[in-house]
């Protein structure tokens, strides 16, 4: 285990089982719909890569990258689009793929932007949900795990851009982010 982590929160086996299960549910729900899965960079990339390999119906992929506006952003919920979709989503069945929903501000903004483009549907699939941190009411359609309010890293999730490469999901040691 990496020396900066305190414990494993979700193991490789737990992640694999959940991603398999989500893939099966999505394959059933999106049969015949030509799904467009939209991964939100960078955190969702590992989950997205595993998830699409567990979807057995037709699926196209695209990515968006968003960044909050400075320190006040987390309270205003305004995010800047750093990378937009490559295609028109009008009439498409869009699934936003996130690694974690925390305050919900990022997702709330993304949903607003994407709904304005008149897709046939927009739903959200997140690996992790921290409901106790929610600041805006945002609906998550597919959730892997609801987790307590602990600082988690790995499997795409970072702290200061580190630990995205770790294979499982871990709780970060407090001294790492408190110093
Ligand atoms: C993280 C995470 C979600 C968002 C959730 O991304 O990947 O996208 O924050 O937080 P919220 O619900 O409070 O808005 P981050 O902005 O850290 O970028 P990253 O994915 O590149 O790490
Ligand atoms: Mn993110
Ligand atoms: Mg981050």
From TrEMBL:
Function (record text): Purine salvage pathway enzyme that catalyzes the transfer of the ribosyl-5-phosphate group from 5-phospho-alpha-D-ribose 1-diphosphate (PRPP) to the N9 position of the 6-oxopurines hypoxanthine and guanine to form the corresponding ribonucleotides IMP (inosine 5'-monophosphate) and GMP (guanosine 5'-monophosphate), with the release of PPi.
Name of this chain's protein? Hypoxanthine phosphoribosyltransferase
Report the EC number(s), separated by commas if there are several. 2.4.2.8
GO MF terms, alphabetically ordered: guanine phosphoribosyltransferase activity; hypoxanthine phosphoribosyltransferase activity; magnesium ion binding; nucleotide binding
Q: What is its main location?
A: cytoplasm
Q: What is catalysed by this protein?
A: GMP + diphosphate = guanine + 5-phospho-alpha-D-ribose 1-diphosphate; IMP + diphosphate = hypoxanthine + 5-phospho-alpha-D-ribose 1-diphosphate
**Cited SUPFAM superfamilies:** PRTase-like
């Amino acid at each position: 285990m990496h020396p900066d982590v305190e414990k494993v929160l979700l193991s490789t086996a737990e992640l694999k089982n959940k991603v398999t299960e989500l893939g099966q549910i999505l394959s059933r729900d999106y049969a015949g719909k030509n799904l467009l899965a939209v991964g939100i960079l960078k955190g969702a990339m590992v989950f997205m890569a595993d998830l699409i390999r567990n979807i057995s119906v037709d699926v196209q992929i695209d990515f968006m990258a968003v960044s909050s506006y400075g320190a006040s952003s987390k309270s205003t919920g305004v995010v800047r689009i750093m990378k937009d979709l490559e295609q028109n989503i009008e009439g498409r069945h869009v699934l936003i793929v996130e690694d974690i929903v925390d305050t919900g501000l990022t997702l709330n903004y993304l949903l607003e932007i994407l709904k304005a483009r008149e897709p046939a549907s927009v739903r959200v699939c997140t690996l992790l949900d921290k409901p106790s941190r929610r600041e805006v009411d945002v609906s998550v359609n597919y959730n892997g795990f609801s987790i307590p309010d602990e600082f988690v890293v790995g499997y795409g999730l970072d702290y200061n851009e580190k630990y995205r490469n770790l294979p499982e999901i871990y709780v970060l040691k407090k001294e790492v982010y408190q110093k």
